[in-house]
Design goal:
2 domains, rod-shaped, five-stranded mixed sheet, three-stranded antiparallel sheet, alpha+beta
């Protein structure tokens, strides 16, 4: 009789652990907000509800589309540190004198939510405004990861 009670107790403990594990993972990212590219400036790096960071960038590829005027896209790949983090905002600034496009990609995640602790890869495409630029070499800096491209001809439509 004592063996049956121990077996029953063991099954109850195991079942409790399984239910708690399922409940923890099902909470995962349920509270992650939907965000768009047009969100307002993030200000500080965190607040009571959300944590903001720079996105991890592993590689960039610059795609020059065969058209006139020429179009340029930056394909950025990287990863999120957990299952709740996502892209918050992408900003592009261009320094015409230095010929540098500076792209900042920030992430957002809920501050007090349990998330899966697995790296999640991402891929983002950012359009560069290259209309009106003269031929030459240009630098693209995405969160500190640098790459460059060359315009073979002036990208100016003559009137």
């Amino acid at each position: 009789m004592k063996t049956n009670k121990n077996t029953l107790l063991g099954i109850c403990v195991l079942l409790t652990i399984v239910i708690m594990t399922i409940a923890t993972f099902s909470l995962g990212c349920a509270e992650t907000p939907a965000v768009s590219d047009n969100e307002t400036d993030i200000g500080d790096q965190s607040n009571d509800e959300y944590v903001y960071n720079d996105a991890v960038v592993e590689d960039t590829e610059i795609l020059i589309l065969e058209s006139f005027p020429v179009q340029a896209h930056v394909l950025t790949t990287g990863y999120f540190p957990d299952g709740c983090t996502q892209i918050h905002e992408k900003t592009v600034q261009f320094d015409r004198e230095e010929k540098i496009f500076t792209i900042d990609i920030t992430t957002i995640r809920p501050a007090d939510v349990m998330c899966t602790q697995a790296i999640v890869p991402y891929e983002e495409t950012i359009v560069l405004d290259v209309h009106g630029l003269e031929k030459g070499t240009y630098i693209v800096d995405v969160n500190g990861f640098r790459n460059e491209f060359e315009l073979q001809i002036d990208n100016i439509i003559s009137e």
